[in-house]
């Protein structure tokens, strides 16, 4: 299949200055030479924690940021230098409620952006009602956006991102801040778009979302791609292993070190929480080490013990490291 | 115990001041809070100089310097309330066991200090650019007058801003209030020139008396009448502050009943 | 070309819709000019300045237009940045310059309305006598003035797009221009060292010309000379702003200053 996005050794640095009088310059490397391709028609996911470089990648590919070095092409056009040819073909949606005019109605927003994308009037007049229908805003299309719920605003963003019928859509954390139902509706729209043949590049830090929607996923952290494969293959990183999960009230780091040394344990990660901490022990055969581990942890006030097969989340945690909070 | 209360008071003041201006860039603070108001002062002084062909424009320097305090007493205090609303801390304030009035005054305290500094910056500008002379001027009394002026203007600011909380664009009401003071306080033309009804409004506004007093002080004139005016200004301040505080509580109660503290 | 005109038109309309719904904008085109006119009227009244209405109406009117065009246009960019739409309108196939031009045009129309409001207020509140010696010339100069203001505003908007720091600048650009260009008092009363700055500001010449067309033109040659300077400066402004927008396209993406990080 044809590659529509090619990224090679992409680097992006930010210079941040601190202080008022004595300016201290600090170079922050947001992308550390990443490489990947996106094929026509696929849903490609960039999965990673906050600050991993997902948004930076999306902004570079949507011509909003210049690469510091490396190559980034969409439809064969350089994103920095050939943006004039590229911009009509793409569109992007950044999650959250920003990026639309709150004081205007949904319809006005769509008309305005259609015009800015130089969409022909006839096509525009036909397309806008279709888009409103697609995102379920037909009924309230003429009300001001500020009266909308978060989910409605985010769906309007999707419609806005489609005014020029782009061949590729970039979605940056589209479901951020939505309730489960709102997020599910949005995911449904995204998968519908995909079945219409659109290429979609999606960034997210929700495991489930990536698993459900993406054909391929790149797990990214601190500006590096740690793994890139189909969700199924990524899960295989861990399928040989299972997970023994112990929820405890208190935690002793020395004990964790001891558990790591138990024979058969491959990795230990911890999800810190307010009420309880979850220790996830990856191993080939949980029943063999369960006895040992529980004995060690007995002083930590064990609340629950369970074993399960590995999920995408475990693959992710294995790659990114288990220090993120849920 | 008392020491603790005082310490808490100052900490509150400083923190809320920092919360407001820490959000802003230092540069933005200097431009918005100092340079622009000083430019406004220079503008009106130059205008007076041209229009009245006057060599001594001390009255305009005095009047416009005192008006500089509105940057804090209206906008600063307004932003304190506004900020609490935006960052959702207003409900914390409502629910806090502490005396809300004290908390609130604490939060405004730094603004009063800052306002006095601004008035002084204005006077210094007048001294440097327009040769305003402070020879033979009773400076302690002038200082006291400035303090009372700032206090009265703060009370006015509190009232305006607590009403503003119900309006979505608080900027509108704050700017209108500041512009009204600019026009009606007698800083740029004598209050007597105004139509009768506007004159009445002038005398229920803060600063009108303070500007009158300050001009007398600058002339070296000092009568018991001035003390009377000072007391009146103080009284105006107390009234505004009281109504403002009651208004704030009323708004809060209303918001709580309507369960709309967040949108409030 | 037809496409550009359409974009300018729709940006202008959108801008007017957005602005009008902003209470603060209503303040700056209605309340502020009226109070400002009241103060200046009161100050000029009972003085020896002849035909002071020309100073009051023209001066406050020109100041409000200046504030409305420059302040609002600069502020609009900032609002677009805060609302997350700046990134969108910079990266659409339509030239950003054209979108900004449309926005400024919208503010200009409102600004002119505020001149009208000032005029009506003085007329109705004080029943002040007012006469324009050369109405046709006045209208022509007024239109050139607006074109010149738009050029200045687009330079300002460009600076604000380029740098978040320029936002601070926006807040204190009002009075200096009003003072230096002599909108309410002749710039001749200012210290001599400010002269060069006054001379490169097109409002200086615009105000002079407008005042002349109100009071009567005695020296036609001098009038034409001043008009030539105004047109020349305006041309320079457009060249400058064009350069800025070319720089913008590259620079903001290299610096990454578009969004609100």
In words, what does this structure look like?
The complex is a heterotrimer of chains A (326), B (264) and C (261). Chain A is of the alpha/beta class and 326 residues long. Chain A has eleven helices and 14 strands. Chain A has a six-stranded mixed beta sheet, with helices on both faces. Chain A has a four-stranded antiparallel beta sheet with strand order 2-1-4-5. The radius of gyration of chain B is 19 Å and the shape is globular. Chain B starts with a helix and ends in a 7-residue tail after the last helix. Chain C is mostly helical. Chain C is 79% helix and 0% strand. In chain C, helix 1 crosses helix 5, helix 3 packs parallel to helix 6 and helix 5 crosses helix 6. The two termini of chain C are 36 Å apart. Chains in contact: A-C, B-C. The interface between B and C is large, with 35 and 36 residues.
The number of distinct helices of chain B, counting runs of at least 4 residues, comes to: 11
What is the succession of H and E elements of chain A? EEEHEEHEHHHEHEHEEHEHEEHEH
User: How does the overall form of chain A come out from the CA principal axes?
Assistant: globular
Let me know the average pLDDT of chain B: 81
> Count of helical segments of chain A?
11
Please give the share of residues in helix of chain B. over 70%
Structural class by sheet pairing and helices of chain A: alpha/beta
What is the largest interface, and how many residues per chain?
B-C, 35 and 36 residues
Spatial shape of chain B: globular
Helix content estimate of chain A: 25-40%
Mean pLDDT of chain A: 84
Runs of chain A with pLDDT <50, length 5+? none
Q: Note the gap between the termini of chain A.
A: 37 Å
- Distance N terminus to C terminus of chain B? 35 Å
Rounded to the nearest angstrom, the radius of gyration of chain A is: 23 Å
For the largest beta-sheet of chain A, the strand count, sense and barrel status come to: 6 strands, mixed
What share of the residues of chain A does DSSP label as strand, in percent? Answer: 25-35%
């Amino acid at each position: 299949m044809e590659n529509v996005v090619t990224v090679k050794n992409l680097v992006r640095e930010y210079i941040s200055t601190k202080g008022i009088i004595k300016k201290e310059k600090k170079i922050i490397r947001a992308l550390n030479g990443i490489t990947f391709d996106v094929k026509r028609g696929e849903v490609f996911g960039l999965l990673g924690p906050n600050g991993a470089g997902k948004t930076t990648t999306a902004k570079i590919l949507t011509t909003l940021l210049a690469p510091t070095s490396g190559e980034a092409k969409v439809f064969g056009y350089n994103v920095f230098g050939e943006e004039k040819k590229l911009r009509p073909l793409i569109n992007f949606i950044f999650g959250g409620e920003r990026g639309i005019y709150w004081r205007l109605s949904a319809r006005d927003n769509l008309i305005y952006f259609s015009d800015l994308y130089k969409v022909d009037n006839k096509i525009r007049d036909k397309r806008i009602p279709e888009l409103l229908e697609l995102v379920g805003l037909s009924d309230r299309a003429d009300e001001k956006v500020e009266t909308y719920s978060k989910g409605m605003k985010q769906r309007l963003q999707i419609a806005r991102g489609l005014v020029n019928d782009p061949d590729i859509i970039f979605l940056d954390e589209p479901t951020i801040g939505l309730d489960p139902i709102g997020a599910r509706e949005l995911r449904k729209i995204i998968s519908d778009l995909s079945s219409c043949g659109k290429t979609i590049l999606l960034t997210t830090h929700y495991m489930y979302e990536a698993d459900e929607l993406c054909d391929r996923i790149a797990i990214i952290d601190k500006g590096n791609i740690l793994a890139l494969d189909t969700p199924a293959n990524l899960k295989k990183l861990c399928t040989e292993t299972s997970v023994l999960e112990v929820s405890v009230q208190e935690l002793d780091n020395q004990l964790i070190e001891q558990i790591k040394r138990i024979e058969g344990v491959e990795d230990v990660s911890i999800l810190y929480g307010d009420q309880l901490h979850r220790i996830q022990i990856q191993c080939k055969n949980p029943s063999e080490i369960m006895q040992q581990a529980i004995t060690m942890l007995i002083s930590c006030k064990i609340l629950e013990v369970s074993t399960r097969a590995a999920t995408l989340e475990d693959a992710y945690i294995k790659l990114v490291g288990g220090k993120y909070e849920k | 115990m008392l020491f603790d209360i005082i310490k808490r008071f100052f900490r509150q003041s400083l923190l809320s001041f920092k919360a407001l201006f820490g959000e802003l860039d230092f540069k933005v603070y200097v431009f918005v809070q100092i340079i622009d108001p000083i430019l406004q002062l220079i503008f009106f002084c130059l205008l007076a100089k041209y229009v009245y062909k006057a060599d001594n424009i001390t009255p305009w320097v005095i009047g416009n310097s005192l008006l500089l305090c509105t940057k804090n007493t209206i906008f600063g205090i307004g932003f304190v309330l506004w900020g609490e609303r935006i960052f959702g801390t207003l409900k914390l304030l409502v629910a806090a066991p502490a005396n809300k009035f004290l908390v609130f005054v604490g939060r405004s305290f730094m603004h009063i200090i800052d306002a006095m500094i601004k008035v002084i910056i204005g006077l210094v500008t007048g001294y440097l650019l327009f040769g305003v002379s402070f020879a033979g001027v009773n400076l302690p009394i002038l200082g006291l007058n400035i303090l009372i002026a700032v206090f009265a203007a703060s009370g006015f600011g509190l009232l305006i801003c607590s009403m503003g909380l119900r309006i979505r664009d608080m900027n509108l009401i704050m700017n209108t209030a500041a512009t009204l003071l600019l026009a009606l306080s007698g800083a740029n033309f004598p209050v007597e020139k105004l139509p009768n009804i506007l004159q009445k409004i002038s005398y229920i506004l803060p600063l009108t008396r303070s500007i009158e007093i300050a001009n007398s002080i600058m002339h070296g004139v000092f009568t018991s009448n001035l003390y009377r005016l000072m007391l009146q200004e103080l009284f105006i301040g107390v009234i505004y502050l009281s109504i403002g505080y009651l208004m704030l509580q009323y708004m809060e109660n209303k918001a709580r009943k309507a369960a709309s503290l967040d949108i409030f | 070309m037809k496409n550009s005109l359409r974009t300018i038109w729709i940006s202008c309309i959108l801008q007017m819709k957005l602005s009008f719904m902003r209470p603060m904008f209503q303040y700056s085109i209605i309340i502020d000019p009226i109070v400002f006119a009241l103060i200046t009227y009161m100050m000029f009244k009972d003085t020896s300045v002849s035909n002071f209405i020309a100073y009051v109406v023209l001066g406050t009117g020109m100041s409000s237009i200046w504030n409305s065009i420059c302040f609002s246009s600069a502020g609009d960019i900032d609002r677009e940045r805060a609302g997350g739409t700046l990134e969108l309108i910079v990266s659409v196939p339509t030239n950003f310059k054209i979108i900004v031009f449309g926005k400024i045009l919208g503010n200009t129309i409102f600004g002119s309305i505020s001149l009208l409001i000032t005029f009506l207020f003085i007329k109705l509140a004080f029943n002040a006598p007012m006469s324009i010696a050369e109405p046709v010339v006045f209208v022509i100069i007024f239109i050139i003035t607006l074109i010149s203001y738009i050029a200045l505003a687009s330079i300002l908007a460009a600076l604000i797009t380029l740098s978040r720091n320029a936002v601070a600048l926006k807040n204190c650009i009002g009075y200096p221009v009003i003072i230096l260009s002599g909108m309410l008092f002749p710039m001749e009363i200012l210290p001599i060292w400010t002269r060069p700055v006054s001379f490169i500001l097109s409002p200086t010449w615009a105000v002079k010309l407008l005042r002349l067309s109100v009071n009567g033109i005695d020296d036609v040659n001098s009038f034409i000379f001043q008009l030539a300077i105004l047109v020349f400066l305006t041309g320079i402004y457009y060249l400058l702003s064009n350069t800025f927008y070319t720089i913008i396209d590259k620079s903001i993406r290299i610096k990454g200053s578009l969004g609100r990080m």
